[in-house]
Amino acid sequence: MNHLAIDNLTFAYTPKRPTLKDVTLKIPVDSWTLLYGASGSGKSTLMRLLAGLLPKYGGRILQENIELPNGLTVAMMFQDPGMQFALDTPQHELEFALENLQLPANEMPARIEHALKFCGIEHLRDRQLATMSGGEQQRAALAVLVAMDTDILLLDEPFASIDNHNRTLLIQQLTLLQQKYHKTIIVADHDLHGYRGLAKQVIRFENQRAELLDAAASDALLKSADQLAATVHHVKLPTASDQPILTLKNLTIEHGDQKLILANDFSFFKNQTTLLTGATGTGKSSLFKAITHLAAYQGTIVYNGQDSQKIKPRRYAQQVGYVFQHAVDQFLSVTVKEELALSLKKGRNPYFDEEHLTAALKLLGLSELQERVVYSLSGGQQKKLQLLLMLMMGQPVLLLDEPFSGLDLHSLHNVVDLIKASQKVYPQTMIIISHQLEGLEKLIDRHVKLADCQLSYREEF
């Protein structure tokens, strides 16, 4: 058998509504296959079924027949790579994975070196995984799969936190892996640019079904994605009338001996939405952690004219909110309904009265998920819930770290519409780290780029 066969598959997390229904597919081995569709449409679910993680860890199969070619091994990279790490550094993760495969000890060093080099993280081998950026963690997780020399690689949003330059490099490396070593690569991605000419087949997930696109439709879809990704959007530079709300004075942020950010006198401005970009690992998330006093820094961070260190921690947390890169780190309750109740109780954003909250839940596709455990939601559903909860909290300043990762373009547009509607009633200052740039043109007022340790305003993104 030269393909993965899925015949009449139906799967449900809850009895009332299957996530996948009557899905029949043939996925060829030794090729690229691209999965796309709205958040929560079943892409990650299918991958977990192929990897053997479901229904062991949740849900139930109502009917199914999944056949893998004899002898082929399968490994999966999760949408949130931090969830699959067991140890503290990439080196230890790689050693642990190879020990579990019972690889002879004398073969491990070469295999580890190859994987680290392949993913461009030789310099990170001994870094604490917990201190890495999301993009660095994604590359570390990919290195484990490469080292394992798995036949079938299931990659769930593998580039969600990676800048476009490194995304292109990794796609090139994966292409080499597929063509030279005859791997089967199945990728779920909301961002479809860069796959034209690579993906042998494209599968669309919609309305509980999975549909194989024909060659002409696939090419048109991927061509359009490439054109959209190449679009340049223009924004204005700050003006003399802009009012600073966060100012970095003589600020130095370091990681070990490496300087990440040097800012002598740099301001973000009140009631503006500022996009913050920069290559993976340059220190964008570290800046957010410094601003929220979750990481050490040298110098002064001024909030509304006052040294932020002189503001009582509780009061400062009520002024500056932080939307974490990984949504699950933000949740405090078990179900969607409980999370909403908590934010309603603690939140201060007047926009979210009963009518607007009901409309927001419908817009984000969360209305029917209120009894679901938050950890059983798809990555995109978790992101939408997280953003809604933090908007409800209503801090005057909101720092958002990759809030759009894992969102399809339709979901992203809905999120942008919600933010804009909320801001009309309750203006907030937002600083957004995002490698996802398509669809943000209606939202972004200013663009700041971090490069060579320096922050600077740019006129386009």
Automatic annotation (TrEMBL):
GO terms for cellular component: ATP-binding cassette (ABC) transporter complex. InterPro entries: AAA+_ATPase (IPR003593), ABC_transporter-like_ATP-bd (IPR003439), ABC_transporter-like_CS (IPR017871), ABC_transpr_CbiO/EcfA_su (IPR015856), ECF_ABC_transporter_ATP-bd (IPR050095), P-loop_NTPase (IPR027417). Keywords: ATP-binding, Cell membrane, Membrane, Nucleotide-binding, Translocase, Transport. It comes from the Bacteria. It is a peripheral membrane protein. Its main location: membrane. PANTHER family: ENERGY-COUPLING FACTOR TRANSPORTER ATP-BINDING PROTEIN ECFA2, HEAVY METAL TRANSPORTER. Belongs to the ABC transporter superfamily. This is ABC transporter ATP-binding protein. It comes from Limosilactobacillus allomucosae.
